[in-house]
Amino acid sequence: MKKLSLPLFIMLLAFSSTSCKKEVSPEIEITVIKENGEPQGGALVRTSIDGANGGIINDEVISETKTDKFGKAYFEFDNTVLVDVALYRGAIIVDSTSILAETKRQKPREDNVYERTLIYRR
User: Fold this and answer.
1) Phi and psi dihedrals of 9, rounded to 5?
2) Which DSSP helix (H) or strand (E) runs through 87?
3) CATH architecture assignment, domain 24-120
4) How far is CA 51 from the centre of its chain?
5) Which of 26, 36, 65, 104 is the most exposed place for a label (fewest CB within 10 A)?
6) CA 47 to chain CA mean position, Å
7) How many CB atoms lie within 10 A of CB 93?
8) Rounded mean pLDDT of 75-102?
9) Closest by alpha carbon to 97, among 24, 26, 31?
10) pTM, two decimal places
């Protein structure tokens, strides 16, 4: 009986550790700071992808928002996406980055957040 219980226990443990995981959609958190390190509230941050001007693109991928008083901007996506993030001062891009935000299998309460910092240059 002991010989059977150990493999059964291991099998149940393996099943429970993988079955509790689910697909978690990616989120992006952008922090915008001034050159002196202080947060920049009210800065315009836009997301886009290569080729977005010539094709049909999910509206969720092409988005814009302004940072809050802590310099934070948030974007959520349903699936994996390679997105360009640009920080604007008026019509001029002052900083940018590209992020591969992937859907991941994680435990139900785990976040899937990609954090980046952009610098608001004058």
Assistant:
1) -60, -45
2) strand 81-89
3) Sandwich (2.60)
4) 20
5) 36
6) 11
7) 11
8) 94
9) 31
10) 0.76
